[in-house]
Design goal:
Strand content: 15-25%
Helix content: 40-55%
Order of helices and strands: HHHHHHEHEHHEEEHHEHHHEE
CATH class: Alpha Beta
Number of strands: 8
Number of helices: 14
CATH superfamily: P-loop containing nucleotide triphosphate hydrolases
CATH architecture: 3-Layer(aba) Sandwich
CATH topology: Rossmann fold
């Protein structure tokens, strides 16, 4: 009876036009907010305030659903805002999700709204630390997918280490910028930026991914469970990538928390990556297409074991389906 009353009160807080967009039980949403130490009433009133709506609406993509707003973006931003008011030293938060899942869209929204609200929150991409073009070509030479970039081993890790360490000490980050449309879609560095912030979000498609202990066993599972038909060249190169992940793992240890935008089906990234490159072609006139796109998708599917990417050791996991609709919410408790 008490539980029923709690759910009834909760339903009264959030209007039907919002909760009708949810694909998950309303009770799981209540538990999700509670585990994030978010007061549902204050939370709703804040984000439904007309002045706040005037700020946030400018940066949504067209037809953004209520579930994306109310069960991912607003809770995540609320956590970041709480951090900005409660911490003394800079922190880094990792955000992981397969290519095309919506990380960059979310990052743009957070950057834009934080700027309007004068909050010390900034978002950067692991992609910005890709190697310069000529170094990238050398590092990627001979990979079995014939891709120009993307998997562990294509980033300037020493520079990333140095940049994050400096940020954690000073709140100042010096970062290269990478334009994927340059060099006919192979990409190259396009400049440098310097930012000052208290909270830095580092997003990337394998952020938080850890090396596996038994790659041979995983490869056998890949044949049986995922029907990947890994070539011997792919199996051999996966060993090198696992070695690289040991170094990336040192980066993950600098994170205060990790959020994971998890795909309900790994194959969703086939559609997402295709859509992402088509948008880039429309926007910048260049992007991956044809065999280059197919090769890149194959790299995403096989360069790192899918089990590793599906089970990131995250503090908060938001599971989305093929249409990027949120299906499940899971998080550990936060304490400020």
């Amino acid at each position: 009876m008490i539980e029923r009353d709690i759910n009834l009160d909760f339903n009264n807080i959030f209007p039907k036009n919002i909760t009708d967009d949810f694909l998950f039980p309303i009770d799981s949403y209540r538990l999700f907010l509670e585990s994030l130490s978010i007061n549902p009433t204050l939370f709703f009133h804040k984000w439904s305030n007309v002045n706040m709506i005037a700020v946030t609406d400018k940066y949504w993509k067209q037809n953004t659903k209520s579930d994306w707003k109310w069960s991912l973006t607003f809770p995540f931003f609320s956590i970041l805002e709480n951090y900005s008011h409660s911490i003394d030293n800079p922190i880094v938060i990792g955000f992981s999700g397969l290519p095309g899942s919506g990380k960059s869209t979310l990052g743009f929204w957070i950057d834009s709204v934080a700027r309007e609200l004068s909050l010390d929150i900034k978002v950067i991409s692991l992609d910005d630390f890709y190697l310069p073009g000529h170094e990238m070509d050398f590092a990627m030479k001979g990979n079995p997918w014939n891709v120009p970039r993307g998997f562990p081993g294509s980033h300037s890790l020493d520079l990333l280490h140095q940049s994050l360490d400096t940020f954690l000490k000073t709140g100042i980050l010096s970062s290269p910028t990478f334009d994927k449309s340059l060099r006919d879609g192979k990409g190259d560095r396009s400049g440098w930026c310097e930012l000052r912030s208290k909270i830095l979000i580092l997003e990337g498609w394998f952020v938080g991914c850890e090396p596996v202990l038994d790659l041979f066993k995983i490869d056998n599972l890949a044949e049986d469970e995922f029907n990947l038909s890994l070539s011997q060249a792919e199996k051999d190169y996966r060993i090198l990538i696992q070695d690289s992940l040991l170094e990336y793992n040192k980066i993950w240890k600098k994170f205060n928390k990790i959020w994971h935008l998890k795909s309900s089906d790994f194959d969703n990234t086939i559609l997402w990556k295709s859509q992402q490159e088509n948008e880039m072609i429309k926007l910048k006139g260049s992007g991956l297409q044809g065999n280059n796109l197919s090769n890149f998708i194959r790299m995403i599917q096989t360069s790192i074991p899918q089990q590793s990417l599906s089970f990131i050791n995250s503090d908060t996991t938001i599971e989305i389906n093929q249409h990027r609709r949120i299906e499940k919410l899971n998080t550990t408790e936060y304490h400020f």
